[in-house]
Amino acid sequence: MDAFYASVEQRDDPLLRGQPVAVGGSSQRGVVAAASYEARAFGVRSAMPSVTARRRCPDLVFVKPRFDVYKAVSGEIREIFAEHTDLIEPLSLDEAYLDVTENRQGLPTATMVAERIRSAIRERTGLTASAGVSYNKFLAKLACEQKKPDGLFVVTPAMGPGFVETLSVGKFHGVGPATEKRMAALGIRTGADLRACSLAFLNAHFGKAGGHYHDIARGIDERPVRPDRIRKSVGAEKTFFADLHEREAMRKAIRPLVAKVRRHCETHRLLGRTVTLKVKFADFRIITRSRSGALPFASFEAVEDAAFQLLDGVLPVEKGVRLLGVTLSAFEEDGSPALSQLALPL
Question: EC number(s) per UniProt (predicted)?
Answer without folding.
Answer: 2.7.7.7
